[in-house]
Amino acid sequence: MESVEPQSLKKLSFKSLKRALDLFSPIHGLSTPSDPSSKQIRISYKLNAEYGSVKNLNSVPVQNQGQNGEKTKGDKVPTSTALVLSGNHDGRTLHHDGNQNAIIPGPNLLPKAPDTDVHTTGMAGAVVSISGSSERYSSTSALMERIPSKWPRPAWHPPWKNYRVISGHLGWVRSIAFDPGNSWFCTGSADRTIKIWDIASGRLKLTLTGHIEQIRGLAVSKRHTYLFSAGDDKQVKCWDLEQNKVIRSYHGHLSGVYCLALHPTIDILLTGGRDSVCRVWDIRTKAMVCALSGHDNTVCSVFSRPMDPQVVTGSHDSTIKFWDLVAGKTMLTITHHKKSVRALALHPKEQTFASGSADNIKKFSLPKGEFLHNMLSQQKSIINSMAVNEDGILATAGDNGSLWFWDWKSGHCFQQAQAVVQPGSLDSEACIYALSYDISGSRLVTCEADKTIKMWKEDETATPQTHPINFRPPKEFRRY
Which entry of 179, 215, 363, 387 is 20 to 30 Å from 474 by CA? Predict the structure, then answer.
């Protein structure tokens, strides 16, 4: 038997293309002959679809011109066969009825059509072809009922402005936490110190030292006079604010600790770090209750709730996990994100939370973790931190210094601000590492890479007229 030489993919593609050309080139450019009956059916369907609501109106008295140019009153044109076109002039609507042409004053319902579509013949009015016009004006959206969008319209929020810049740290400011009494807040920095600031005046009240690496997580207890801190030195510390010193240390993490949260009802502490484990600690005994293991990369965000799921974590492995605290196992894994989930924000009133990643900001429901929607624009930056207050304003901080404000209900971004580095700092230090609202939700504090702390509040002089809402729902929810 003769051996068949294998042909290359390029040669086979050319042979297939030549075969197709040989088959279809003789009939290329030949149009299908028109079918008058199908054209008539198509025209009648369009007439019923577009003008069905105005076909059965009562007869309208009109003024026609006789053959001698005299106006005759009382003649009626049945509107059941009238064709309403958008090619009107001076607020008049053109009706076509058999062999007569009538000009009837009427509302300008449709946008003005090109002049080529309406031909005037002297004083006899306008002559319009039914077959041509029905195809030309098939999309008359003005006559159709406007259906309101199903997407919720955002509530108006005044823009936020920076009213205070606090300096004092000697390194990047990486973390922040507020006092439950809303009288002070604390910040952790890469200079290995924790500083406590007065909210009203912005003055430094106290500096705590004890960590040997940058401090990435802070939390203030609502039940005790305790402050908890975690850092890259693998240490988790408990500070007694009555004595201003460390009273407990929680040992167990194998690498840097990136996030920290307190349970709202139980005396336990949650920490997550580079060892891909979220560890649960008993505050009093310093013992590790359990280790929530299941992530494949750094656990960089965590929050807790009084009910299931009691623990929610986000990781660099681009997943969000819900944890059963009693069993110490995963309840649910959310895989909607494509990149690291560095920030989570739990709504203070609703059973919803948002997650921030470099690909998008997404909103989920609790307790089942159902996906609700994406935010309606993309920040195009690594989201380091995010927070939401009771008024439904979500603030997100980007790695490029962008600070965006969103309406929680609709996902509409109503303000985009940019961090301005302090004199003497590099432009690359325009980065926001952490942010948080105070207890009242009326002030926002951002921690930045230029070693400063910025405080924001709403602009009291803004009104809906000076700052209107520029909102467009997603394409799939628009109705024209």
Answer: 387
